[in-house]
Amino acid sequence: MKRFFQLSLILLAIPFLSGCIFFEWASGACEWFDDAHTESHCYQKVGIYTNTPEACEGAEYGGTRTKCYIKLAQRQKDGSYCDYIGENDGPPNYSREECYQAIAIETGDTSYCEKMGDYTAYGNEFSGGTGFSKEECLSVTDTSIYEDDSDKEGSEDKDEEDGECKYDSDCDSICEGNTYWKMGCNARTNTCEKTFDTNCSDENTEIGVFAFPKLCDTSSICIDDSATIRGMKSALSSEASNFQNLMQNVERGRRQALDNCLSALSDVTNKFIIDSAIMFSGLSGLRVNTSYQSMAEFSKYLQPSGSTVASLATAQVTGPVQGLLDKLGSIAVADVTGNAPKMPVEDYISLHCNASKTLKAEFDRLATERDNAIEIAEPFREW
Known about the structure:
There is one protein chain. The chain is mainly α. The protein folds into 2 domains: 2-146, no CATH class; 226-382. Helix content is 48%, strand content 9%. It has helices spanning 2-12, 19-29, 36-50, 53-56, 62-76, 96-107, 111-114, 134-140, 149-162, 226-269, 319-331, 345-377; strands spanning 174-176, 179-186, 191-199, 204-207, 210-213, 215-217, 221-223. Strands 1-2-3 form a 3-stranded antiparallel sheet, with no helix packed on it. Strands 4-5 form a two-stranded antiparallel sheet. It is rod-shaped, with a radius of gyration of 41 Å. The two termini are 41 Å apart. The model is unreliable at 1-22, 148-160, 271-295, 305-311 and 333-338 (pLDDT under 50).
């Protein structure tokens, strides 16, 4: 914060002091900074804003100093500033040849490209999107902007009128698939170009044991997949209700089976002879609804750490239990036709007493699944 305040104070003084006075004052002010890196950038800013190459010389770091000269050359459209860069300057400093290519691109004057000779280097912010060499300099220099002074103003106005943009803010961001692209304005061509991207599929909305990939949105970069999240919330809520309904059906069957078991045992104890049709009217129509939505489609959103925690079971009774319910239901027929099924007393007692135990175990299993579904759904309350 202290460094920012000092540098801001220096820049704010520019309008109030003449060039020479400000240069002398600011050069001394740059010495306020207690590290060479910040001090070098201070001299660079002073040099660029005051068009004073002497200020650039105060930068201790060569990269900052040579960059200052290139910025001045571009700002003034004057290649003579490149001569301040030593002939032997190079990485990590900027070279004179790199300055030549930068000013050629800025002015459209290819004579600066000719000065590069056999020099080659990898590109940077001043290379115009390519590497550094005489040939690459010529390929990226737009000679149409190199005109007589009398025509320059009109040409620049025309370029602005014909161009797609003037500032980065003129360019709207785009989505390609689920990738967000920030667009920026190319100052040379006045066209919007891709600058940096964000893959929204790499960002997740984590809710409990689930992770939902985000979606690209041009106004907010990456946003929550609200539709899928709400769909998951609805499915979990419905599943808990489905388990509860199954539990009620199974419990109804268990109680009827238990009543029949106890009644038969009581009758046998009292030596009641059962020689007529045994009726089981209480379990009629107990086949459960198996059309509930499967939870399998949501399993893909489980985080690796949560796959062993949550069981996304679809609400249904097990196969053997359904078979038992079907058998009990088949016994529940009306005797008005005299065709009611009969079975030995011991088979009747065994069937219903064992059914009561089996249905109790199934009830407990369904209760566990229901509680699990409720627990999984809990983090979705805010959605």
